[in-house]
Write a structure and sequence with these properties.
The protein has a single domain, classed as Dihydrofolate Reductase, subunit A, CATH 3.40.430.10. Helix content is 20%, strand content 27%. It is built from four helices and ten strands. The strands form two sheets. Strands 5-4-3-6-1-7-10-9 form an eight-stranded mixed sheet. It has a two-stranded antiparallel sheet with strand order 2-8.
């Protein structure tokens, strides 16, 4: 069964987007080789994406690098939303229920990864006990404000993580 991996680039102070969802801060770092990200991308079978992320800023908009993983991902995506559009782009499914979205993404991914894009969807998966792994690529910048890696949820229990591989920093398994 496909594992759910929350994958994000984050500033050292823990933000995945700047104020108002600005992703432009990533542009100057986008061209740098990242073997860990390439390893993840090679195993991705489907994306599970929040609506704000799906509709949001892309630092590579209008270039060959537009889209997930700098335009390198071309596969199925499931978008979790309370506001599904009347029609969906090819390869994209809109779902209004977390468990239905996860099931659809897992089915699309087969035995490969379902990569979660979006802090709120990742937090929902974590809270529901569905998140399997977390992979964070820290970028050498301090944003000071924006969208946190994991939104604060009052009363959330502590979550223990364990490193998956010594050769890939900041890739963790959620310990259940």
């Amino acid at each position: 069964m496909a594992r759910l991996v929350y994958s994000a680039a984050a500033s050292l102070d823990g933000y995945i987007a700047g104020p108002d969802g600005d992703m432009g801060w990533l542009t100057e770092y986008a061209g740098e080789p990242n073997p860990a990200a390439e390893r993840l991308l090679a195993g991705v079978g489907a994306l599970l994406v929040g609506r704000r992320t799906h509709d949001g800023d892309d630092p590579n908009r209008g270039t060959d690098a537009e889209g997930a993983f700098g335009g390198q991902y071309d596969g199925p995506a499931v978008v979790l939303t309370h506001r599904p559009p009347a029609s969906a782009p090819p390869g994209t499914v809109f779902a209004t229920d977390l468990h239905a979205a996860v099931d659809a993404a897992r089915e699309a991914a087969g035995d490969r990864y379902v990569t979660i894009l979006g802090a709120d969807v990742a937090a929902q998966c974590l809270d529901a006990g569905l998140l399997d792994e977390v992979f964070v690529m820290f970028v050498p910048v301090l944003l000071g404000d924006g969208t946190p890696l994991f939104p604060h949820r009052p009363g959330r229990a502590r979550v223990r993580l364990e490193s998956i591989a010594e050769d890939t920093p900041h890739w963790y398994r959620v310990v259940r």
